[in-house]
Inverse folding.
């Protein structure tokens, strides 16, 4: 565990990618294979399912530290991270461990899941006694499912490629889909033989870069393919050996959740991989994302929900035809493959083509973008017709050009301390709009202020707290912020009767007093705009 | 004996304020940090060892400054006033007040860890103890300073070996000198920022032994900065002054560095947990050692400390200060800013 903790420290302490990769290479080439397997799994974001109930964990940590629950909560609010709070509070002992990461994961971490609470407690107390320093912190981070460290998947892939001599593309592909970290798995991951056992695997997704310049800077409009940017779930549909695998961009297998799409996929030939957007779709138009959300979290879908929220896959790319990887072919050609595959599907199929917009010049593109919201889209996608299907997010070939957000001026009413590097600072805010004399909470936002502004608001919160409800402070309704958001819908679950999508702070309206904030009526007017 | 006013703690019987934050006629001051020593009072009473740094801080406002050795007593309108070491920085004092048989002690800022650059904190028995609570949560437990200094020196040595300059940010008065006392001068030259150098000179003339230092701007001019350790106030990060040093690794030394989020927020390469304030166990032990039955808590995590002490059967309450709302490093930076004219120094 110490070796992995040292890797964590080295990555955490550095901001230079070169030294991060060096630390990874160092670890991967010297660690036992089983440890390397778990390390890779955690570094690319694999997390164990919940092992211990959080309230139990807090109670036991407080007990081990001799700290009452109320004081534990105060500490948590300041440290902003449960694992760190535990690490800082539970007294350290002199003991040292000599076991590797795999031993700790397989003998002390994962077994927690199947133990009775009293045995979980005993095992954790022993672990906290045995592990010291950052090893204990890393263990607690794994335990709370909040293990994160400053390396992207891309850096891990680069380090693995460097250690193994296998190409980065192959490593990235082998890391897709489902696998269990083990010594055998790791050996295959870095192995030089070419057979890929897991044929259900999707390809690494190619992602669009945000466009923040004028589109005319992209050159000739004719070199670009223009599509709507949908607000759904980005998916790869993999059809191989008579079976269908629908993968989300989060590399989650959506098996069984979208049966209508999976049954349409049965018409596709083997050796087909399509890239597209899964949307709640009715009468040739997408339904709001909140509708789709009702489907996402259901492992099994009832008849009523199927009828209420029908879904469809809108295809915009093709990555594999007849078992042949066509990602290196130009976009234009891949689009033709996609069209050929989708057009022959029978009527009523829930797999369709995402339309291409007919644009003669950039002015038309610009005009289409301002129509996005009416089309229930977030904006436009601009894809270079000659572009291959790459890996990750890269500027140059694919751009997303989002529509300007909607904005509302709202009043800060509640604040809560943040997490991570915002620990101990009031950074998580709830905003309200006016409804007659009352203020109605309507959105939460956590981002958009500069560090200097955060400090100012933090100070305001501390000096203007009206009430405390646990970690939440009610503050004097005085500060006004312009909130930006992507979409707005009616909602029965929100007090204000509306729900907004991706709210964030656009700017601090220091020029506006609270009584000039927007009203519920003006906000509701946006619903129909 | 004492009450809180909009200018700070006020002793009615003696007609003086302790650490006022706005101008008053007579100020009794615990130490020379900006959040305790305010400008434009008519007179000041400080500890004798703290007089020189207070004068430096007050500049033209220091005309009415008087001092008194630790342990001596002065009677002001019938209130017996004496200073006792607080162990925070050079000359920092607890103020003991005695009037009609009742004893109060105002701690100012203090720590009970040993520190070679100032006299050690001394427990003073009292009925009422007024304590700071900057780090009044049990997550704040200081690692041994031997360990911290070993880490700092190892960090410096590794940077020097890689041909890099080390920048250690710390408050110009107090922390900077405590760091100097713990550095291993055999690793390389030690350079100081102007704001630090002024205070360091006062420490030296006050009899505190510190390793040899050079004014950083002189060393820059002579390009004699290879493998150097630079001690400067936090305000230099991102300054043009700093860029002149070339390849620099940065670190910050403060009690706040105990928490990872605060370390990351600072955006430095390393954070060292070294504080001149009491941590949680020190604070509780200090309260015990005073024997006080009544405790007023100020400056920091007043809520948790009051609740804890109340649970131990003490009569505890929080008192407001102008700094009440701020408890993160920003407050201390702000308090320091009056002493750290831009990095042109």
């Amino acid at each position: 565990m110490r070796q992995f903790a040292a890797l964590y420290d080295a990555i955490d302490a550095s901001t230079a990618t070169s030294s991060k990769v060096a630390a990874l290479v160092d670890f991967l080439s010297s660690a036992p294979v089983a440890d390397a397997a778990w390390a890779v799994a955690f570094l690319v974001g694999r997390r164990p399912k919940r092992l211990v109930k959080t309230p139990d964990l807090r109670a036991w940590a407080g007990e081990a530290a001799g700290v009452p629950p109320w004081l534990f909560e105060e500490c948590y609010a300041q440290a902003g991270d449960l694992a760190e709070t535990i690490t800082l509070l539970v007294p350290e002992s002199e003991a040292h461990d000599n076991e590797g990461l795999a031993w700790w994961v397989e003998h002390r971490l994962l077994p927690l899941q199947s133990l009775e609470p009293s045995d979980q407690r005993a095992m954790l107390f022993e672990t906290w006694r045995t592990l010291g320093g950052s090893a204990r912190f890393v263990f607690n981070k794994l335990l709370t499912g909040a293990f994160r460290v400053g390396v992207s998947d891309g850096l891990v892939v680069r380090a693995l490629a460097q250690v193994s001599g296998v190409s980065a593309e192959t490593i990235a592909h082998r890391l897709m889909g489902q696998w269990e970290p083990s010594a055998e798995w790791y050996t295959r991951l870095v192995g030089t033989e070419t057979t890929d056992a897991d044929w259900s695997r999707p390809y690494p997704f190619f992602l669009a870069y945000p466009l923040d310049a004028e589109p005319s800077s992209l050159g000739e409009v004719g070199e670009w393919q223009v599509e709507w940017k949908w607000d759904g779930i980005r998916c790869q549909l993999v059809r191989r050996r008579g079976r269908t695998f629908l993968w989300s961009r989060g590399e989650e297998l959506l098996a069984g959740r979208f049966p209508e799409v999976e049954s349409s996929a049965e018409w596709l030939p083997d050796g087909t991989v399509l890239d597209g957007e899964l949307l709640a779709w009715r009468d040739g138009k997408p339904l709001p994302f909140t509708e789709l959300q009702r489907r996402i979290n259901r492992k099994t879908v009832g008849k009523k929900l199927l009828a209420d929220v029908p879904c469809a896959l809108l295809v915009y790319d093709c990555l594999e035809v007849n078992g042949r990887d066509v990602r290196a072919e130009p976009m234009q050609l891949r689009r033709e493959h996609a069209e050929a595959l989708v057009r022959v599907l029978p009527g009523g199929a829930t797999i369709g083509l995402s339309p291409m917009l007919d644009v003669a010049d950039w002015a038309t593109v610009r005009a289409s973008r301002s129509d996005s919201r009416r089309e229930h889209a977030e904006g436009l996608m601009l894809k270079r017709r000659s572009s291959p299907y790459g890996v990750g997010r890269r500027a140059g070939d694919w751009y997303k050009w989002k529509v300007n957000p909607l904005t509302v001026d709202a009043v800060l009413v509640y604040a809560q301390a943040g997490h991570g590097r915002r620990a101990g600072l009031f950074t998580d805010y709830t905003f309200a709009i006016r409804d007659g004399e009352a203020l109605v909470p309507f959105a939460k936002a956590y981002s958009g202020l500069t560090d200097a502004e955060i400090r100012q608001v933090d100070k305001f919160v501390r000096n203007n707290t009206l009430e405390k409800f646990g970690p939440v402070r009610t503050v004097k309704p005085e500060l006004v912020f312009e909130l930006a958001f992507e979409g707005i819908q009616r909602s029965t679950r929100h007090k204000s009767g509306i729900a907004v999508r991706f709210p964030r702070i656009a700017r601090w309206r220091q020029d506006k007093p609270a009584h000039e904030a927007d009203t519920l009526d003006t906000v509701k007017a946006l619903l129909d705009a | 004996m004492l009450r809180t006013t909009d200018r700070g703690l006020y002793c009615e019987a003696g007609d003086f304020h302790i650490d006022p934050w706005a101008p008053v006629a007579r100020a009794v001051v615990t130490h020379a940090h900006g959040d305790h020593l305010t400008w434009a009072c008519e007179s000041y009473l400080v500890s004798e060892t703290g007089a020189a740094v207070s004068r430096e801080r007050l500049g033209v406002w220091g005309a009415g400054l008087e001092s008194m050795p630790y342990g001596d007593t002065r009677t002001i309108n019938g209130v017996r006033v004496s200073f006792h070491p607080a162990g925070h920085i050079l000359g920092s004092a607890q103020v003991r007040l005695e009037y009609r048989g009742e004893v109060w002690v105002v701690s100012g800022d203090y720590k009970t860890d040993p520190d070679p650059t100032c006299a050690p904190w001394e427990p003073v028995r009292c009925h009422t103890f007024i304590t700071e609570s900057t780090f009044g949560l049990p997550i704040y437990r200081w690692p041994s300073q031997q360990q911290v200094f070993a880490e700092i020196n190892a960090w410096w040595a590794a940077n020097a070996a890689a041909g890099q300059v080390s920048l250690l940010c710390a408050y110009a008065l107090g922390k900077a000198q405590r760091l100097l006392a713990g550095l291993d001068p055999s690793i390389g030259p030690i350079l100081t920022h102007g704001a630090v150098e002024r205070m360091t000179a006062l420490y030296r003339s006050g009899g505190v032994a510190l390793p040899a230092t050079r004014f950083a701007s002189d060393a820059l001019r002579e390009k004699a900065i290879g493998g150097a350790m630079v001690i400067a106030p936090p305000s230099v990060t991102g300054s043009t002054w700093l860029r002149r040093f070339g390849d620099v690794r940065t670190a910050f030394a403060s009690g706040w560095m105990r928490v990872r989020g605060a370390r990351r927020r600072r955006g430095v390469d390393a954070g060292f947990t070294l504080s001149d304030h009491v941590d949680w166990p020190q604070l509780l032990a200090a309260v015990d050692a005073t024997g006080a039955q009544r405790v007023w808590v100020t400056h920091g995590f007043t809520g948790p400390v009051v609740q804890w002490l109340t649970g131990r059967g003490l009569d505890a309450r929080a008192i407001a200060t102008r700094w009440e709302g701020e408890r993160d490093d920003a407050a201390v930076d702000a308090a320091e800013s009056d002493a750290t004219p831009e990095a042109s120094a």
Notes: The interface with chain B takes residues 13-15, 65, 67-68, 70-71, 74-75, 78-81, 84-85, 88-89, 419-425, 451, 455, 458-459, 462-463 of chain A (CB under 8 Å).
